[in-house]
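Review this:
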Amino acid sequence: MNVTMRSANDVLTFKFNEETQFSELLGELNGLLEQPLFNQDGYYPRAFFDIGKRILNEDEIVSLMKLLKQHKKIIFDGVTCTKEKENMQLIKRVIRNGETIRVDVPTLFLDDINPGAFIHCYSDVYFMGRVSGCIIGMNSSVKICGREFERCKISINQKTLQDVTISAMVTVYYEDNDIVLLKEEK
């Protein structure tokens, strides 16, 4: 199968094989969208497309959008983009209850993440302040680093750690079908 589908936190991720012709991928996606899962009345899941390092030309983007519009079964939530250079993003404010932040490039949060805030991570994140919200790794390669977690919820690849409370430098990542929490000794 050249198109695989995963669900994490109410978002479907369609991963495309980078070595397969794009027209073949669209054919497989078309077949997936015909499945009974997508034929339920009132069910319109959000969908993100992980195309890897593939660079889509304008015709391929138009073809993908036409296919999605033709089926009218999902809500388009984005597609990965290859960037020439990833820079570190810096966020210098408190993330409040009810706020949702999407992280597409490596990001450093200098202030606190309050309870009820959601951080959706498609890239690595680093926290200098207290983290009490919900951190969601949207793919299995995301690393979450911080030094003060207080009753935080961390999810990566449909695995979840509840009420994480640690006051030490920690790196959280996904490995061997589980979440690994690596505490720095010094």
In short: The two ends are 45 Å apart (CA to CA).
